């Protein structure tokens, strides 16, 4: 049992804020090289960012999701890609804590374990003696280039009965990494594809995904911890929204920092700061940021409260989680679009952060589980008394 001191939320948020200059320094490099700079990974590690969902018995912090939102928001002010990768590590890292305790002993044997992963069942699994054999390919594996393990999803075809999705843990060294991350947004995340070819996975590292989605765990040691007894989708949602909040805040800061030195070309305004249209744009964007922060924190507080209480989740609450995440990313994009649109022609240069922020927040809005339209439709469907048409709730 580790006896390490657990930092407070305020201390962890302060550590993240101290990393902002480092993230900003390497953000352009990360875009050009389509991965995080090693100094950024080291900085995140030294600050304990990768320990936030690691069990305390392995030297982790077991923080609540409110802390994840606030930490990711600070990181997102510096670089959306760095914040996104940290958030991704928190989710599969949390999922690893649902496996049997002996599996966790293996996964968390290193002091700074990083687990990447996916929720997409784009592989097939066949039963084998003592486990399963998996073949398939997974895309969008953010952080794979700096991870030691990957959580994978596959469809298992049993000898009898219907096929069903499984979740498994594999060392990243067992997978083929395909360098195919050529994108317009979140370029620094290194979200490459990985491939399994006749990969044997022992049974103890395999769980049925439907059980995981309903909040069931195979871990005895984590059974009483509030953060590990919440269903997967609410956890994943609350772990993700901080990046969007940080990007929106970063856009506002970037815009205001440039404001004093900019005039509005071909007008009588020698300073953009003096133009009434600027006042309206800044106020509109700021209020959208306030609104998205409300939804992000409401989501996190619901997840944390349910975890502490150990109470059952209502279907409407689960659907509202998806609605909140969609609202957060929609409002973030709207705020960033206002500020980017008001930034003038000089903002198209790559050394002006607002153009990168706009592309990053657009990429988040396109994410299948974060897309505003998809999530809004699901919430409305449930409010109208219909069953959800997805397991991911």
Keywords:
Butyryl-CoA Dehydrogenase, subunit A, domain 3; eight-stranded mixed sheet; Butyryl-CoA Dehydrogenase, subunit A, domain 2; Butyryl-Coa Dehydrogenase, subunit A, domain 1; alpha+beta; 393 residues; single chain
Structure notes:
- Strands 1, 2, 3, 4, 5, 6, 7 and 8 form an 8-stranded mixed sheet that branches.
- With 393 residues, the chain is of the alpha+beta class.
- The mean pLDDT is 96.
- The two termini are 34 Å apart.
- A hairpin with a 2-residue loop joins strand 2 and strand 3 (131-141).
- Helix 7 (232-259) runs antiparallel to helix 10 (353-366).
- The longest helix has 34 residues, at 276-309.
- Helix content is 49%, strand content 13%.
- The chain has 11 helices and 8 strands.
- It has 3 domains: 9-107, Orthogonal Bundle (Butyryl-Coa Dehydrogenase, subunit A, domain 1); 115-208, Butyryl-CoA Dehydrogenase, subunit A, domain 2 (Beta Barrel), CATH 2.40.110.10; 230-383, Butyryl-CoA Dehydrogenase, subunit A, domain 3 (Up-down Bundle), CATH 1.20.140.10.
- The protein has helices at residues 9-33, 38-46, 65-78, 80-96, 101-107, 209-213, 232-259, 276-309, 315-341, 353-366, 372-383, and strands at residues 115-117, 123-128, 131-141, 149-156, 164-171, 176-178, 192-202, 206-208.
- It is globular, with a radius of gyration of 21 Å.
